[in-house]
Every structure is written in structure tokens, then in C-alpha cells.
Amino acid sequence: xxxxxxxxxxxxxxxVVKGLREAGHVVEHADNGRDGLFMAASEPFDAIILDRMLxxxxxxxxxxxxxxxxxxxxxxxxxxxxxxxxxRVKGLKxxxxxxxxxxxxxxxxxxxxxxxxxRGKNDGPATKLAVGDLEMDLLARSVKRAGxxxxxxxxxxxxxxxxxxxxxQVVTRTMLLEGVWDYHFDPQTNVIDVHVSRLRxxxxxxxxxxxxxxxxxxxYMLRVE
Length: 225
Prior knowledge:
Layout: E1 2-6, H1 10-22, E2 26-30, H2 33-42, E3 47-51, H3 60-69, E4 76-80, H4 85-93, E5 98-101, H5 106-118, E6 128-131, E7 134-137, E8 142-145, E9 148-150, H6 154-165, E10 171-172, H7 173-181, H8 191-203, E11 212-215, E12 219-222
Helix pairs in contact: 2-3, 6-7, 6-8
């Protein structure tokens, strides 16, 4: 996806932009409302992540209201430290599609942005995932590769599901900790490496070709060689 991040806080913007790019998205950044409005109105984006309090004479709500008055329907997620109910209501009434308060977990931000781009589609939620000859049935909770059934433990299933949903994207250890384990601590813990190793023994080793790849100094990627 092509995503615009309008955020003036350098640390927050750097964190979000880096995470989105690691997840395989193309990201543009504006650090003030005026530039953000210009970019949002003149370039095509799949989603916009918008801070409410912005410099440049145009705050997030005004930026959003201007876009909607121009019939710009790009999905918008407001990202703000303003967390009161009235603040969230104002953001939604201004035309935002979702509202996430700071501080936040990146995994939730990513999931919300991806959910926004799926809204309005009529094909319903996917119940099956496939990457090459690897197939996952989310309703039956079953996995097959080349037609052969693979027995996975619940955590292994969740890990593989996350990798398959982000196929051909670099998945960082932080993303896995937040998305699979709901942990928020040192990403250098070896819990991920241990589970990925076990998963490889079941998903890759018996079939003679590798789907789960290590991306040095970054994380992992599920892809067909």
C-alpha cells in the first residue's frame, strides 16, 4: 500500500514510517498540516495516518474536513494523544475512519490501517490463505503443504498465520512479539527464534524447499523461492 503519514513529532513519525516500510508499504511523510494537505489532495494514497495537533496553520481536523469537502475518500486513521471521548467523537465526525490514541502498539496500528483498506469490499473476510503450495484453512484450523497435512500447536498456527498474512513482506521481531505473543518487551528475546525453528522443521524441512526465510538484521519473510 501507499500510505501518507502526517505527524510532526519526529520520534513518533520515525517509528511509524520505519515500521510501515518494514511491513512492505510505500510511505510518504509530512511534518505539518499545510504540506500534509497538499500531498493528500494531489497524490493518490491507499490510507492516511493523521495527527490532530499539527503546525503549519492547518491542524488535523481542518485538514481532514478540507479533504472530505473535496470528495477525497481516502481512508484516514487519526493518531492522537487526545484520548477523551469528545476528542474521538470530533475526529470521527470530521470524517476519519478510525481513531487510535497515543501511546500505541505498532501491531495494532498496522492492523487498523490494513483493515481500513479492506472496508467496503464485498468479498467478505478471507477464510483461507495460500502461499505457493502452503495452504491454511482458518475455519478448520488446518494446514497443508503439497497436499500433506501439517500438525501445528496453537502458537505455531498463529505464527504461521501471521507470516502468511504478511507474505513477501519483512516481518520484524517486534511485529511478531506484538502480533503473535502480545508482548511488549526486548525484541532480542529468543522466544521467536525458537518457535520459528520449530515451525521450519514442520513446514520446510520435509518438503525440500524453503518458504520461511531469515532476513539478516531485520526479521523473517515467508515467500516462494
